[in-house]
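Anyone have tokens for Regulator of G-protein signaling 10 isoform X1? Sequence:
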Amino acid sequence: MLRLVFPPAPRVLRSPVAPARLVQCVSEKTAECGAAWTSPGGPQGMAHIHDSDGSSSSSHQTPKSTAKWASSLENLLEDPEGVKRFREFLKKEFSEENVLFWLACEDFKKTQDKKQMQEKAKEIYMTFLSSKASSQVNVEGQSRLNEKILEEPHPLMFQKLQDQIFNLMKYDSYSRFLKSDLFLKHKRTEEEDEESPDAQTAAKRASRIYNT
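Reply: yep, here.
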């Protein structure tokens, strides 16, 4: 009598569970994760927010990103790559604290837990607004802020100061950024990529598929 011998079933290897923070970051919008900030020389408690040295490869850049950046400051700040390049430019002008403060306020407004809100409010105050701030921003009304109001924070407590910084960037540093070598270099790179043979071949292939 013939006996059929079957090989043992293969073992299934289970992947380790990803950390909760990683899952959360991946599930969030790219702009929200990529456009976060870390204050230079600020409290260590801010290390949970992404920091960038401004370096990035062109592969991370979406087509026509410079056109999006040039359309408005709002669009630039919604693009993680745009935020990196704008920060890189502001570092050279010694005013990076402006965009870091704006980003910190955006992150603060999304905070719902009261304890976390108190911690972040104190971090923002100590880093950007107090007389001993390591990266102090120059805004009207900051002298009226004190640590007492940090005990009862609310999402819009920094809104007026954030708007001042936004307008300062919009009518000052942002216009210079669009004329800077850094921005123009990226714009030329995009134009060269569009004119490359590979890009033209892909465009022709797409055109043929569309017309069939």
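The radius of gyration is 24 Å.
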